[in-house]
Amino acid sequence: MIELEGLTKRFGDKVAVDHLSFQVRPGVVTGFLGPNGAGKSTTMRMMLDLDNPTSGTVRIDGKHYRDLPEPLKYIGALLDAKAMHGGRSAYNNLLCLAQSNRIPASRVAEVLDLVGLTAVAKQKSKGFSLGMGQRLGIASALLGDPEILMFDEPVNGLDPEGILWIRNLMKGLAAEGRTIFVSSHLMSEMALTADHLVVIGQGRLLADLSMADFIQQNSRSYVRVRSPQQERLKDVLHEAGIDAIGVPATGTLEIDGVGAERLGELAAQHQIVLHELSPQRASLEEAFMRMTADSVEYHAHAPGTPGATGVPAPSHTAPSDAAPSDAAPSDNPARPADVPAWGAGFEAARKGGK
Fold first, then answer.
1. CA 256 to CA 234: how far, in whole Å?
2. Structure confidence by residue, pLDDT tens digits, 27-43
3. Angle, to 10 degrees, between the axis of helix 160-175 and the axis of helix 130-142?
């Protein structure tokens, strides 16, 4: 188990992690989510004593990481796959880690086989692709056969086969009773992998609950109904005190607050044919975006919209009798007329420099 209590980290005036408290329990895959800049990486570094907290504490099975004898036997982590020594072979990278934690050398061959790198075990890791580097990093986390595993973006660079493999690996390890803590920006993958979610924004805890509860609490759930007898169905629902919202584009009805079973029974009682009766629930991505909307630190803009680079926001303060500009009209509507094009005058400056 991993326990965080009042964990805080400041970098000057910047508060990266703000009194964060939660537990990562064994037997489930716990997803760690948050927008860019939310403090996820800083939190994970403090778990491993790579950063010292300003205040608060983190315990791994009741101890600080620095107090763990042979820590790879307690917790394995993949925070940066590029942390391996590029001049060493995959085998020797793992062998050094094994020797430092008194892990038998035979275990190195086992984990290389587990992650599918046996054929390249003698090759230097600097020549590895991104996906191969990820597999080597995962192998290093598994090396000590720990009860706790922590991964930051584990599917980065993996092909579809590799993504399926790491997903099943994490689920299988959790089923063995191990503690699995994984951070990722891939919502679709997290939805297939995690059982429980910890969500942070601007360094503060936003949610600590099961996947199902998170989606239910942060999205709209309804039942979609489609019938060739829609008007009669609407009358039946109205008589039963049930409100239905018509969607002309799809020819369906959307009904909140009533289960699909109840709706199906009503239709059957009145011999109404249904072509569709489907409960609708938002995706993890939609629920996440809704919860973290006020915690996003870096907002991107579509090209040509106010706020995008080089696109001024519309002004409502310029007087109507402002003097016209002497500058030539701009050939780019996104650039004001009095702002020269990028690189303008470069050729003249270059010749003058000669």
1. 14
2. 999 999 988 888 999 99
3. 10
CB–CB of 284/207 below 8 Å?
no
Asked which of 47-56, 91-100, 208-217 is least confident by mean pLDDT, the reply is 208-217
Q: What is the pLDDT of residue 91?
A: 94
Amino acid at 322: A
Is 134 buried (19+), middle (13-18) or exposed (0-12) by CB count in 10 A? buried
d(CA 213, CA 221): 12
Burial 272-296 (b: 16+ CB within 10 A, else e): beeeeeeeeebebeebbbebbeebb
* Percentages of the chain per state (helix, strand, coil), in multiples of 5: 35, 20, 40
Q: How far apart are the first and last CA of the chain?
A: 68
Q: For residues 228 and 275, is the Cβ–Cβ distance under 8 A? A: yes
Q: Which of 75, 82, 12 is nearest to 49 (CA)?
A: 75
How far is residue 106's CA from residue 94's CA, in Å, rounded to a whole number?
Answer: 11
